[in-house]
């Protein structure tokens, strides 16, 4: 095999499109730009992607939706959700995530007082309501918050 004899495989390269070189080329006269108008001119820049020719754009036709709270909204866990944890278990964000009780990462976890806690749980959360804290401590457990 000689390096000077190498050539691309058939179909690997396309011939360049030579515009403005006569009617036989298929791209003569107007060079594929059509007839008249902004796009035919030398400075005929393409329009913005969302521009719809002057009609009211889709982005403005559709109503605004949703609201994102500036404060970090906590993941809520109720005491009844902790029923699956055994006596004396340590419950933290990783344990809650492993059981599918909270989703995502980076959001604080808040414990609320709905339901009855298991005996002697050690709960490590970012926030806890006063009622939830009282119920867990009454059951012989403790709540640890940073």
Strand ordering within the main sheet? 1-3-5
Gyration radius, rounded: 34 Å
What is the helix/strand order? HEEHEEEHE
State the low-pLDDT regions, or none.
Answer: none
Topology:
Layout: H1 58-61, E1 75-78, E2 90-91, H2 93-98, E3 109-112, E4 122-124, E5 127-128, H3 130-138, E6 142-144
Outline the structure in words.
With 146 residues, the chain is an alpha/beta fold. It has a domain at 75-144: Ribosomal Protein L15, Chain: K, domain 2, CATH 3.100.10.10. Helices cover 13% and strands 12% of the residues. The chain starts with 57 loop residues before the first helix and ends with a strand. The mean pLDDT is 90.
Summarize the structure.
By secondary structure, this protein is an alpha/beta fold. The chain has three helices and six strands; from the N terminus they run H-E-E-H-E-E-E-H-E.
Main features:
146 residues, single chain, elongated, 3-stranded parallel beta sheet, 3 helices, alpha/beta
């Amino acid at each position: 095999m000689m390096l000077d004899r190498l050539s691309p495989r058939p179909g690997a390269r396309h011939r360049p499109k030579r515009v403005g070189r006569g009617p036989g080329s298929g791209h003569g006269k107007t060079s594929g730009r059509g007839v008249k108008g902004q796009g035919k001119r030398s400075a005929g820049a393409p329009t913005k992607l969302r521009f719809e020719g002057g009609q009211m754009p889709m982005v403005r036709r559709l109503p605004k939706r949703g609201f994102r709270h500036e404060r970090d909204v906590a993941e809520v866990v109720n005491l009844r959700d902790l029923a699956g944890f055994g006596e004396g278990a340590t419950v933290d964000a990783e344990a809650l995530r492993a059981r599918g009780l909270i989703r995502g990462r980076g959001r604080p976890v808040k414990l609320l007082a709905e339901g009855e806690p298991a005996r002697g749980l050690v709960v490590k959360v970012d926030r806890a309501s006063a009622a939830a804290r009282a119920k867990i401590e009454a059951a012989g457990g403790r709540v640890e918050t940073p």
